[in-house]
Design goal:
By secondary structure, the chain is mostly helical. It folds into two domains: 108 residues, no CATH class; 133 residues, no CATH class. The protein has 13 helices and two strands. It starts with a helix and ends with a helix. Pfam families: Kinetochor_Ybp2. This is Glomulin, FKBP associated protein. InterPro entries: Glomulin/ALF4, YAP-bd/ALF4/Glomulin.
Length: 297
Amino acid sequence: GFLSAIGHPFPKMIFNHGRKKRTWNYLEFEEEENKQLADSMASLAYLVFVQGIHIDQLPMVLSPLYLLQFNMGHIEVFLQRTEESVISKGLELLENSLLRIEDNSLLYQYLEIKSFLTVPQRKKSLAMLQLYINKLDSQGKYTLFRCLLNTSNHSGVEAFIIQNIKNQIDMSLKRTRNNKWFTGPQLISLLDLVLFLPEGAETDLLQNSDRIMASLNLLRYLVIKDNENDNQTGLWTELGNIENNFLKPLHIGLNMSKAHYEAEIKNSQEAQKSKDLCSITVSGEEIPNMPPEMQLK
């Protein structure tokens, strides 16, 4: 209401048409103004599209895809902040924008817009990521999966993506006409990123346990569901590579981990025998040593 009263038509303001560029003598002033404007416009978009304030004044002909594309920049502004309350506004705006769109209708070309790839990399809400995945078409899902497997560096997020890949393969195998993105050569290229240990046998198995268990679950599913004679997924022609690049390094890594923990147990037992245990003092009071059984556990 205030914006309209001072002569700025509301629809024109929300879509930021005809903005005049102010030139400052000092670059930092201009950068600060741009940041404040981005924050302000993102907040305005939240009030309009999530809270519904004056949304009836916007043109009704705007498509859901256009509104999603328009709001992605604002969503990214919210998600770059650290305050939980601000991040939640970004996720609400993303949810509001996605719910307007039909499943499997968001074309893969939208991923060429920078913010469409950067927004899902936030780890704050897997629920929003799942909603985002559901809206993308097959090629978009495939592209996003590849991107996140390469960039997330988070075992839980990667496990989540691998589970989604399994779901897409399952749907493809149940259809009379296979989805080319989740069978054959395209799938094998994706599996190269899934059935893989980041640092070979030296990979920290505990740190990467979510991802490794999801990968093994997917491999087990493929062996059971895809008949060797049909070989719809292409798995059976790649078993040799999977053995060398994933299963053998995993086997070596498990043996190394087992040897490491056995050595830790032996050291603990020897320390108990010698009773050469260090004590810990907090605020002048000595804390009792951990019982041997607890240390071994």
